[in-house]
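Data availability (excerpt). The following record was deposited with the supplementary files.
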Amino acid sequence: TPDPQANYTVLIWTQNINCDGYDFVESIPLTGDVNTNINTVAQQGSGNDAYARVNGVNKRYTGVCLKSFDRNVKIVPEGTAVLNVYYDRIEYTITINSPQRPRTVVKTITAKYQQDISGNFPVDGYEGYVLDPVNSSIFKTGQVPFLDVMPAENTVFNLYTYGGNTTYHLIYYFEALPTDTNTVMYNGTRY
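Predicted structure:
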């Protein structure tokens, strides 16, 4: 008599932003033969292109690659078997080149996907410049003033003088409430 079937669960986890643990992504309930090892998870690809195939379905996620998954997990009659799949964040590099030719590298930023890189902008000595992407698959709509988080690609940017190196200052006022102090009068209106 063949062993009966029982439920089991495959849990998908991705490395958290601090790279000191894992965040839950997805739970996949499946059924298999009791007292057999779970064999529905397999690695596809390698290196930064590695991902898991779970029960014939590819599990790919932006900015992460398969790190590992549990092995030799036996399906139990109680239906409580769990197989964990772990993805780690991929490290990417942004290269920023000078605005003048021949272009030289003025800054390199390396971080894992979605980590905060905002402290790198503006680039020292190039305040008022924007980033002009070179052959990027992510940045397709023109110049970028700065980046908050690491994108999911190695990217080269050339610095570009925005607006012909002219700086404009915009001064604006809000109309004052009757109870406000330290106001300014302009054209008969108090600001």
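Summary of structural features: The mean pLDDT is 91.
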